[in-house]
Amino acid sequence: MYFNSYTYLVFFLPLVVLGYFKLHKLRMSVAARGLLVGASIFFYSYWAPKYAALILFSAIFNFSLGTIMSSSLKQAKARQVKITLIFGIIVNLGLLGYYKYADFFIANVNQMLGTEYPALKLILPLAISFFTFQQIAYLVDSSKGLTREYDFLSYCLFVCFFPQLIAGPIVHHGEMMPQFSRKRARILHWDNVFRGIVIIVIGLFKKVIIADSLAPNVAAGFDSMGSQLSFAESWCSVLSFTLQIYFDFSGYTDMAMGSALMFNINLPLNFNSPYKARSIQEFWQRWHMTLSRWLRDYVYIPLGGSRCSKPRIYRNLFITFLLGGIWHGAGWTFVIWGALHGLGTCIHKLWKNMSIRLPGAAGWFFTFVFVAIAWVFFRATTLGSARMVLEGMCGFNGLGFGEDRVYHVGSGDWANLGILVGIALFASNSMEITRKCRPTLLLLAAAVVMFVISVLNFTGFSEFLYFNF
After folding, report:
1. How many CB atoms sit inside 10 A of residue 19's CB?
2. 24 flagged as catalytic
3. Which of 56-60, 145-149, 278-282, 452-456 is least confident?
4. Three state DSSP letters for 135-156
5. SS3 83
6. Of these residues, 24, 172, 328, 348, which one is catalytic?
7. Can you state the angle between helices 231-261 and 411-426, rounded to 10 degrees?
8. What are 72-84's pLDDT values in tens digits?
9. What is the pTM of this model?
10. CA distance 308 to 161
């Protein structure tokens, strides 16, 4: 099931919210959690029922290991804790690697060795990257005694809670589960329902009206293999994707946070106007913030972080971003995308150590252009497609202004892109809008208008981009 569907917006979410709080009102807290877990499994299996068993196995496996480590810590069995942790990480990463990277590995082996091993042609289970990282964090925190002991039903709720299940935010056990235990969280609060609805509508509008409207120009540039893109066409496609992925993913996150808020649960902030960033470091402090936090806590710091020699700091930064790129997808394009951000972050770190500071406007411009160029590899399906777009961006195939070549780029396209860049730069983001909002008829009317416009523009199902990761 997907957030941008009638089934979710009109039936699933309202019924689950009402049922959850009705059971709490009847003092049936265990049944309320059971309803939420069951609804979350239904939400997940609506896409592919066979993979419901996978997420349940993952939950049972990791909960068992967490319980073992908690018991071992009480008995001061440090070696057993370490062995259990390593075993758990290997199994989790092995499962992720099998489904996500096996065919990529086979293809590269065949290319290098001239073999013809058949591809497994596995369908990537929805959300596997997200719930794998979330549970690895749980195991690491359990090994340090940072998690409280909860029952299995509560752990399933942590793993499967449907607002953040598919594409995050990536949450810590300790920042979400205590919220469910608060007495105040078991009562329906209409102010949270109102704010949640507003955030959901904003996210839906971002997805349907903005992100999906950019998709044709993105596809025209990136999916026109064999064609020579002009300067105008390539830059229009790249800027369109730069904005599409932001409004698409931040729209999804808004809908996730709004849905959770209706249950009185505050998910961690995942976006904070990233295109306002004036450095690549600041960009990653604003973009997909929970992934950045995970990579910092469970990759960068364990590698040594910043508490080592300068060459090792640069190495740690590069490896962290390289792994972040690989996490996003199985392909050399994602490897290059991660490597570019790793290299950019190292250069920024070097400049910072040399006390080199760019003026604010210049810092923003170079950061935005760098991020946009790196997105080429993120969106391109092959290295050949990325090369084609980059050649066009460099003007190798002509400027193409006012010409009909691969596809027509008109003044309306540039005006639209300019308006959207202005929104990304100067408009308040969703959290800034709703943090101070109070239930008023004006705000309710605005939400209704945005919802109606979004629904009227449903032109067939369009999944969120990050569902592929």
Report:
1. 15
2. no
3. 145-149
4. HHHHHHHHHCCCCCCCCHHHHH
5. helix
6. 328
7. 40
8. 888 878 889 999 9
9. 0.90
10. 39
